[in-house]
């Protein structure tokens, strides 16, 4: 397959293509949930809530992690492998931090009486934020694998494919969170 | 220059997949070759065989409940021998009857006609017909099958749990499906159903991603999108629909799991069950229907489109004529795919929906008749004055067109919200969708199997058995489903266990018996096919290198060796110079896609 591509005009790498279309299907999951949320919020017995302050911090964490993965990719392209490792590790830590902050946010919400089953609006909040956190967690697992690979001595990776795929996905979950956060802020 | 030369004229050019292109030079182990294979051809065989096993199970279930419907007052002691306490005294348990209906629908819709049809032929034909060595990601492709396999294992295991499999209908509407106490079928069986479908969705998505990317990104030199065979176009739109709509079903399933296990009330409100008032409040069961049918309606096109693609290809090849209106065919695929995402609420006309909203969905639903009619017109005009060769595949393709017309026309009735008041959930609906997407798509699948069997397994199937299979199935399908229209018009509801208690439906006693008898005959006729299929894999007449294009087809898959290895072509992938439908042109029977346009050739 790669042979065919070489003969022809350069095309997007098949796996990158796969990634982009996969992202579309993830968008559809959240589009389904958002539309369900909008429909339900116009019906009776819908309680509003206030998002915890911690979610602002987690937003900050994931925004910064987008920048660090950008720096990490740029370092890789420039073959500055030490910096690549550093920024990649920081991204991973920020990703883990994000998931923890979401968890703390949930605990704070729960303590303030916004529990999973009290009202449909609260249930939606937990499901939407939770599903997004799961997607971030999936990204963290991939990041950890990349970090381990980058510290291996005997196998050297020269192609940018893995880091490209990783950063696409990571920017995606970042943007997805920004969308969800503002959606929940506006609708909550 | 013929295509043999294209294959061998040039020496091997160095390319990255060189080792894969020559796998028959080195032996693969049994496990990497037959089980965890990354070869799209082997994966398609896996999908096909799993699909056939599911089809037998799902078909058998319909035989069991047809026994009940045809002979409600009669006991069949042998049923107790196989089903035990679910058929005490030889009569089907009422709850188990619902389980059978539910599993029949689930198995046929998802496991046979989605995975078995699209999984088999998308996997097999996409790389072969676009000219690629394999899928964009053979590994994800393998995962796709194994997710399907695990979904199958989970669903199969649900048949053996104490409380029985899911039994709330294949649409699993809450609150019935959300409350464990509602009935036995909503207990463990329902959880297994949801887990299985979640795995199935992952499988479909992984498969779909691969199909789309392979079609868009990995076509061989000269294979422009407008030169693709219509099969590929149909698989493309099928995959797009799957990628867009299956995730929404996943959302619906996640919310349902929360309602079942974590006490949320997405779909539940004001419920009184077994003398208790449930605490759930504020949910809406209609919300589930919206989410479900946003997948559910495109799903019927996920089932139908591949059958349409296969039919187009088989009809054109065996009429020895180019397909009529190629661009109209592509356009109508696009129109059907788009419209199918805008009509889901026509399944919900009687849920108390705003009638003005309903009229929008009526409009879009009726609009689907336009691209569907274009397709039918084009198939018929392709047949018109063709030099028709009645191979078994061709018969099944023509059968598809016939069933698609018969079933499609009643869709226009059902798409009207006013008529739907009366016809909703009656046997009229059963007749409609079994003809238009159930049996028709099975016919598309049979056409595909009979047509590509020589390429798939390197041997031929037996024609006599195939003709018998076709005629009995074709006549049987109409005998089963045609009378159901009358029952439905009389108001006979679907999913009922026993109609003999209703004065108004007593007149159908004989008709129901008749339907049951034909259904049983047609079910056992399928074993002609199954025997033919498995026998021919091992003992069928071999495809030789000289006879490797038995239907004299123009498309790329027939330019591979008679028994292609992993990588499909030896040496270079052939270059494409023309569209896929140059039949009976300039005095020649057919011109392969690999042949350059001649100097004095007339345009098509």
Can you put this structure into words, describing what you see?
The complex is a heterodimer of chains A (188) and B (604). Chain A has helices at residues 2-7, 14-41, 54-77, 81-111, 120-151, 161-187. With 188 residues, chain A is mostly helical. Chain A has one domain (51-187): Four Helix Bundle (Hemerythrin (Met), subunit A) (Up-down Bundle). In chain A, α3 (54-77) runs antiparallel to α4 (81-111). In chain B, a hairpin with a 2-residue loop joins β1 and β2. Chain B has one domain (34-590): Cytochrome C Oxidase, Chain A. With 604 residues, chain B is mainly alpha-helical. Chain B is globular. Chain B is built from 18 helices and four strands. Classes of the chains: A mainly alpha (188), B mainly alpha (604).
Name the average pLDDT of chain B: 92
Q: Which overall shape of chain A is indicated by the principal axes computed on the Cα atoms?
A: elongated
What is the strand content of chain B?
A: under 5%
H/E topology pattern of chain A: HHHHHH
> Mind telling me the CATH class of chain B?
Mainly Alpha
Structural class, from secondary structure content of chain A? mainly alpha
Please identify which CATH superfamily of chain A we are dealing with.
Cytochrome c oxidase, subunit III, four-helix bundle
**Tally of separate helices of chain A:** 6
Please estimate the helix content of chain A: over 70%
Query: What's the CATH H-level homologous superfamily of chain B?
Result: Cytochrome c oxidase-like, subunit I domain
Distance between the termini of chain B: 20 Å
| Helix-strand string of chain B | HHHHHHHHHEEHHHHHHHHHEE
């Amino acid at each position: 397959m790669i042979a065919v591509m070489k003969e022809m005009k350069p095309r997007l790498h098949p796996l990158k293509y796969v990634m982009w279309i996969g992202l579309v299907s993830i968008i559809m999951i959240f589009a389904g949930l958002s539309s369900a949320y909008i429909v339900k919020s116009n019906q009776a017995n819908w309680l509003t809530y206030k998002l915890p302050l911690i979610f602002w911090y987690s937003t900050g964490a994931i925004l910064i992690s987008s920048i660090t993965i950008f720096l990490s990719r740029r370092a890789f392209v420039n073959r500055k492998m030490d910096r690549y490792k550093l920024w990649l590790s920081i991204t991973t830590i920020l990703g883990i931090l994000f998931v923890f902050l979401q968890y703390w946010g949930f605990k704070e919400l729960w303590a303030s009486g916004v529990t999973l089953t009290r009202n449909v609006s609260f249930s939606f909040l937990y499901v939407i934020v939770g599903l997004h956190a799961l997607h971030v967690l999936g990204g963290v697992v991939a990041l950890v694998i990349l970090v381990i690979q980058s510290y291996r001595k005997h196998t050297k990776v020269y192609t940018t494919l893995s880091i490209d795929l990783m950063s696409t996905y990571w920017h995606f979950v970042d943007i997805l969170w920004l969308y969800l956060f503002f959606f929940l802020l506006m609708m909550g | 220059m013929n295509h043999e030369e294209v294959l061998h004229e040039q020496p091997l050019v160095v390319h990255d997949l060189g080792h894969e292109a020559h796998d028959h030079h080195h032996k693969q182990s049994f496990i990497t070759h037959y089980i965890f294979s990354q070869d799209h051809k082997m994966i398609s065989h896996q999908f096909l065989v799993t699909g056939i096993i599911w089809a037998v199970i799902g078909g058998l279930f319909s035989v069991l409940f047809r026994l009940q419907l045809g002979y409600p007052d009669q006991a069949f002691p042998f049923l107790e021998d196989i089903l035990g306490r679910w058929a005490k005294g030889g009569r089907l348990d009422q709850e188990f009857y619902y389980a059978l209906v539910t599993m029949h629908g689930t198995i046929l819709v998802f496991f046979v006609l989605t995975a078995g049809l699209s999984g088999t032929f998308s996997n097999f034909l996409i790389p072969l017909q676009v000219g690629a060595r394999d899928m964009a990601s053979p590994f994800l492709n393998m995962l796709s099958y194994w997710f399907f396999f695990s979904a199958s294992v989970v669903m199969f295991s649900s048949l053996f749990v104490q409380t029985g499999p899911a039994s709330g209908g294949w649409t699993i509407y809450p609150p019935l499906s959300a409350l464990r106490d509602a009935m036995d079928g909503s207990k463990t069986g329902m959880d297994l159903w949801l887990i299985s479908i979640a795995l199935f969705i992952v499988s479909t998505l992984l498969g779909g991603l691969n199909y789309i990317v392979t079609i868009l990104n990995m076509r061989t030199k000269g294979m422009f999108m407008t030169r693709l065979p219509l099969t590929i176009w149909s698989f493309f739109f099928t995959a797009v629909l799957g990628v867009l709509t299956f995730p929404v079903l996943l959302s619906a399933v996640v919310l349902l799991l929360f309602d079942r296990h974590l006490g949320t009330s997405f779909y539940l409100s004001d419920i009184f069950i077994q003398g208790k008032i449930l605490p759930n409040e504020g949910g809406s069961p209609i919300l589930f229907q919206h989410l479900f049918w946003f997948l559910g309606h495109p799903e019927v096109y996920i089932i139908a489109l591949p059958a349409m693609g296969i039919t187009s290809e088989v009809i054109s090849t065996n009429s020895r004529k180019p397909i009529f209106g190629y661009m109209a065919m592509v356009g109508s695929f696009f129109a059907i795919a788009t419209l199918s995402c805008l009509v889901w609420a026509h399944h919900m006309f009687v849920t108390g929906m705003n009638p003005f909203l309903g009229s929008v969905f009526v409009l879009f639903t009726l609009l689907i008749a336009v691209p569907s009619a274009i397709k039918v017109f084009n198939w018929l005009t392709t047949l018109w004055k063709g030099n028709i060769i009645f191979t078994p595949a061709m018969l099944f393709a023509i059968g598809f067109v016939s069933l698609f017309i018969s079933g499609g026309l009643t869709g226009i009735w059902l798409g009207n919200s006013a008529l739907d008041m009366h016809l909703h959930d009656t046997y009229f609906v059963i007749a409609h969708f079994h003809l238009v997407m159930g049996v028709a798509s099975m016919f598309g699948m049979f056409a595909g199997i009979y047509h590509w069997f020589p390429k798939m397994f390197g041997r031929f199937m037996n024609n006599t058995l195939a003709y018998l299979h076709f005629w009995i199935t074709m006549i049987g399908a109409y005998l089963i489903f045609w009378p159901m229209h009358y029952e439905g018009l009389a108001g006979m509801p679907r999913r009922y266990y026993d109609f003999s208690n209703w004065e108004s439906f007593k007149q159908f006693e004989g008709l129901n018996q008749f339907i049951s008898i034909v259904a049983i005959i047609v079910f056992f006729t399928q074993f002609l096919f199954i025997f033919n299929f498995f026998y021919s894999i091992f003992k069928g007449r071999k495809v030789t290198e000289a006879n490797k294009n038995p239907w004299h087809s123009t498309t790329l898959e027939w330019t591979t060796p008679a028994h292609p290895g992993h990588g499909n072509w030896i040496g270079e992938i052939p270059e494409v110079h023309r569209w896929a439908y140059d039949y009976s042109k300039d005095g020649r029977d057919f011109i392969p896609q690999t042949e350059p346009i001649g100097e004095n050739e007339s345009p098509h």
